[in-house]
Amino acid sequence: MAVFTPVSSEDLCDWLARYDVGQVQAQQAISAGIENTNYFVSTAQGQYVLTLFEKLKPSELPYYLGLMDHLAKRGIPCPRPIPDRDGQFFSMLCGKPACLVTRLKGKSQMAPDIPHCSVFGDLVACLHQGAADYPDHSPNPRGPAWWVATAARVRPFLDAKQNALLDEELAFQASHRSDALPRGPIHADLFRDNVLFDGEQVGGVIDFYFAGTDAWLYDLAIVVNDWCMKPEAALDAHKVRALVAAYNTRRPVSAAEQATWPVMLRAGALRFWLSRLFDLHLPRPGEIIHPHDPAWFERILYHHVHYPSPWPL
């Protein structure tokens, strides 16, 4: 669990006084996440999630909160930001910008089967289509420029073999640009723990705070790298086919995108290897925090490099 900024019940009640959500009945720290501080909040009128942003600046928040509001209005099951009485989606709490959003039904499915993958593949396509006309723009905050900058900071913690893999992959990605591929706002972190299932259907997609404009295929590759991986860090072909087929039915993938699929799988693995290395070796002070093991995505990247996976359909 990550709680970087403790919020007292008094502070919460004072802050919520600007909202039309009723009296606070309970608050509970959320045992997930490594970027922000989150609490479940129950009031007389409903169930909500309070987020205090530990890294994002107030100037960056309108993009993310506006995107969530945009998608919710289009029927995508995602948290809807609650405006205060002044119509603002966020304000300062305990020295940090904070927002209140609706709490969604369901729980994460950490062992998805083929039907789960198929249902979610369709939802990813719906999300991309729903976000396509979002008028705001923000570059992917953890795109290639971030890869290079972060690689420089984590190199001292790597051995020679790991540094060689990192050098080779950065050079490979630099020579395989994806700027011409279909693109728009992407979630960029659609891991299993950021998706809630309510029965057999997706009840919600949460944690949009890595979103930005990038290739839709990259977002799909991030999904496949988490949802369709075997314990030996190799892709489960049946799950991949089910997820990608459902996505492709909703948003047909072009020939150019299909040809770039192996590159995107590697890009997704590189991004999360780097972020997990950074969180492990260069953590921020926090009340409680358990970073993810970067070795898992190092293995996935190694597999994609040595055993490229063609477009599955």
Description:
- With 313 residues, the protein is α+β, with helices and mostly antiparallel strands.
- The chain has nine helices and nine strands.
- The longest helix is centred in the C-terminal third of the chain and has 27 residues, at 255-281.
- The mean pLDDT is 95.
The CATH topology label of the largest domain is Aminoglycoside 3'-phosphotransferase, Chain: A, domain 2
- Helix percentage: 40-55%
Number of helices: 9
Please summarize the sheet with the most strands: 5 strands, antiparallel
Count all strands and give the number: 9
Multimer state: single chain
Overall form: globular
Whole-number tally of structural domains: 2
Judged by helices, strands and strand pairing, the structural class is: alpha+beta
Furnish the topology, listing elements before pairings.
Elements: H1 9-16, E1 24-29, E2 37-43, E3 46-52, H2 61-73, E4 91-93, E5 96-102, H3 114-131, H4 144-154, H5 160-174, E6 183-186, E7 195-198, E8 201-205, E9 212-215, H6 216-227, H7 237-250, H8 255-281, H9 295-306
Antiparallel strand pairs: 1-2, 2-3, 3-5, 4-5, 6-9, 7-8
Helix pairs in contact: 3-7, 4-5, 4-8, 5-8, 6-8, 8-9
